[in-house]
Structures are given as C-alpha cells and as structure tokens.
Design goal:
The protein is α+β, with helices and mostly antiparallel strands. Helices cover 28% and strands 49% of the residues.
Length: 131
C-alpha cells in the first residue's frame, strides 16, 4: 500500500486483513459490523450506464449470502493502494485476481473507508460490471 502516513497506512492494511479473514470465514455479520450504513454501491452495466444505490444492513447481508453463500473455494491475490483524502477518509483501489472453484478472473474495485470513533468503516463500494 502507498500513500498517507505510515501509521494510517498500517491501520488500513490491518482493517483489510480483518475484513478478508471475515470474508474467508463467510462471517457476513462480522463483515457488516465493519460498515457504516447506509452503504453506497456504485457500478455500471455492459451498456455503459452507471448507477448508484444505497443499501442497509439487511440488504448487505442478503447480498453477501447470495454472492458468497455457494460454499465453493475462493481466494484473492490483490494489491491495495490507499489514496488518503484526509486523516479520516481514504479511497482504496484494489487490483488483482479472484479465484473461485478453480476459475481465475481479474478484479479491480474501490472502497471508501471512513474513520469513525478511531476505527475504519467501509461506506462506499465501487466496481464495474454489477449494474
């Protein structure tokens, strides 16, 4: 990770390590505990149209169950680059690959993390192709 002070960068790295561990364990409630609701989801579709929606905790949990609930093996090999907008706002670009049940595909997405009461919470998720 690049950008921001070393201490802030380390806290973002630790946040993603915790989130990734929860995702690997399919602990959707734990993942939701790291969010600042309502969440903004920004994407586009194959026709070049963008969209933005807000979801609450219940919708997020349902989404995670649908997307990750299949029980198949998955792994990520990613590099995350934080872009600090301030001490309490960081936009993190993630580039890499995701492998699910032996199929590997490239991934690129961004997350806006907001510091609340000294801890990071994800508030916006931005990824193409989900529109």
């Amino acid at each position: 990770m690049r950008g921001g002070s070393g201490l802030s960068e380390a806290s973002v790295r630790e946040w993603f390590e915790r989130y990734d561990a929860l995702a690997a364990a399919r602990d959707y409630e734990g993942m939701a505990d790291l969010a600042l609701f309502p969440l903004n989801e920004v994407s586009d579709d194959g026709k070049g149209n963008g969209s933005a929606t807000q979801i609450d905790r219940a919708a997020y949990l349902a989404q995670m169950e649908q997307v990750m609930g299949g029980g198949g093996e998955f792994s990520f090999d990613v590099t995350r680059t934080p872009h600090f907008l301030s001490d309490a706002l960081v936009f993190v670009i993630t580039d890499g690959t995701m492998t699910y049940e032996g199929q590997t595909q490239p991934v690129r997405y961004g997350d806006l993390l907001v510091k609340v009461d000294g801890g990071w919470r994800f508030q916006s998720m931005v990824q193409g192709g989900w529109g």
